[in-house]
Amino acid sequence: MDTLYHQTNILVQQTQECFQMLETRPTNYQEIESNIQEKISVINRNCEKLDTLLFKLAPTQRQNAKMNCDQLKYDSRHLQAALMSWQQKRIRKQAAATEREQLLGQRFTANPELTAINIDYALQQQNSLNNAHQGVDEMLHTGAGTLESLRTQRNTLKGAHRRIVDMANTLGLSNHTMRLIEKRVGEDKFILIGGMIVTLLIIVIVIIYFT
C-alpha cells in the first residue's frame, strides 16, 4: 500500500508540472490536456485501490493511511477543477479571437432599408422645422399686431388725457380732482407699458424656443 501511495503522490506532482507546461507551451495544449486528464484518471483509480487496501491494515495504521488517501482524493479533485477552468478559459479566448477575425474580415455594405429610414427621418425633421418656422412667423405677425394695437391705445389715452385736462380747465375743476384724474391716467399708462413688455417677452421666448 505504501508503494501505491507514493506512486500516486508522484503522479499528483507530475500533473501539477503539466499545468506549468500549459502556460509555457500553449500551442501543444491538446496533447498536454490529454496527458493531464489521463494522469487524473490514474490517480482516481489508485485512490479506489487504496480505499480497498485500508481494510487490510491494522487498526492502528488505518487512520493515518486514510488521511493520506483522503489527501490524494482532494488533490485529484483540485487538479480536475483546475483543468476544467483552464479549458473554459481557452475556449473563451478562442471564441473571442474568432469573433474578432470575423469582424475585421467583414466588408461594409450599405443597407437600403436603413438608408430609406434615414431619408424618411430627415424629411420628417425638415417638415418639423418648416412648421416651426411658420409658427414663429405667425407669432411674430400676431405680436406685431398686438404692439400696434397697444400703440394705438396709448395714443388714444394721450388724446383722452388732453381732452380731460382741457375740459377740466374749462369747467374749473379743483386741483384735487385734477390730481386724481392724472393719477388714473398714469396708472393706465403703466398698465399699457407693462402689457407691451410682457408681449415682447413672450415673443422673444417663442423665438428662442423655436430656433
TrEMBL record:
Keywords: Golgi apparatus, Membrane, Protein transport, Transmembrane, Transmembrane helix, Transport. One of its GO terms (cellular component) is SNARE complex. This is Golgi SNAP receptor complex member 2. Gene3D superfamilies: 1.20.5.110. It is found in: Golgi apparatus, cis-Golgi network membrane. GO terms for biological process: protein transport; vesicle fusion. It comes from Pyrocoelia pectoralis. Belongs to the GOSR2 family. The lineage of its organism: Eukaryota, Metazoa, Ecdysozoa, Arthropoda, Hexapoda.
